[in-house]
Write a structure and sequence with these properties.
Low-confidence stretches: none
Order of helices and strands: HHHEHEEEEE
Mean pLDDT: 83
Number of strands: 6
Radius of gyration: 30 Å
Structural class: alpha+beta
Oligomer: single chain
């Protein structure tokens, strides 16, 4: 019995030595660990960048709308501006970050609407979703996400209460099952900015 065990050990000893050597070899461990961790790591990095850009774009839109409406408030836009001019003023404050082209009606990314209201309280009823509610469904298509709000521009007259709204379909870059900032079909996130103000008493 001992002889058989001795011969078996002699035959298997090279395999045992190699097995121990492989178990101690850690030359590829870092590569394997990096491969395992790279997906969540890069997802986290790009998620931080995506979120930062979306919040930055939201702030830029709000600032651009505020700067553009200042000329309405002070009476500098009356008789000289229309919807196209106001759109240019808003786009001019986005530092080229937004696509403001309006070549095809209904497909433009930027939508603006300016109109006078009776009182500040009545402006609340005019603030709403500029696209169909079906656009927010998981099964929505890009056709469901066309603008449901008609673009208009009326800067009123002196002492009028004005509501100015700007909406933009911000394209997101990362759309994963476990992370996506898109709120619309087509990988877009709806940004919005609203200002309600009273014109100065110019022209009186």
């Amino acid at each position: 019995m001992k002889t058989r065990q001795t011969w078996a050990r002699r035959l298997l000893s090279p395999l045992i030595r190699k097995g121990r050597g492989v178990a101690r070899d850690e030359s590829g461990a870092v590569l394997i660990e990096f491969a395992i961790l790279s997906i969540p790591f890069f997802t986290l990095i790009f998620a931080i960048i995506e979120t930062s850009m979306a919040f930055f774009a939201q702030q830029v839109l709000e600032s651009a709308l505020q700067d553009a409406t200042r000329k309405i408030l002070t009476g500098q836009s009356q008789t000289t501006w229309n919807a196209s001019e106001f759109r240019k003023a808003v786009c001019g404050g986005t530092f080229g970050l937004f696509d403001c082209s309006a070549d095809n009606a209904g497909t433009e990314r930027l939508l603006i609407k300016v109109e006078p209201v009776t009182t500040f309280n009545s402006a609340v009823a005019l603030i709403g979703l500029p696209v169909s509610a079906d656009c927010m469904k998981a099964t929505a298509t890009e056709d469901d996400c066309k603008w449901d709000l008609t673009e208009a521009y009326d800067d009123g007259k002196g002492s009028d209460v004005i509501i100015a709204q700007a909406f933009y379909k911000w394209p997101t870059l990362i759309n994963l099952p476990w992370f996506s900032l898109a709120t619309q079909a087509g990988g877009n996130r709806l940004l919005s900015a609203v200002r309600v103000f009273k014109n100065e008493p110019f022209g009186t």
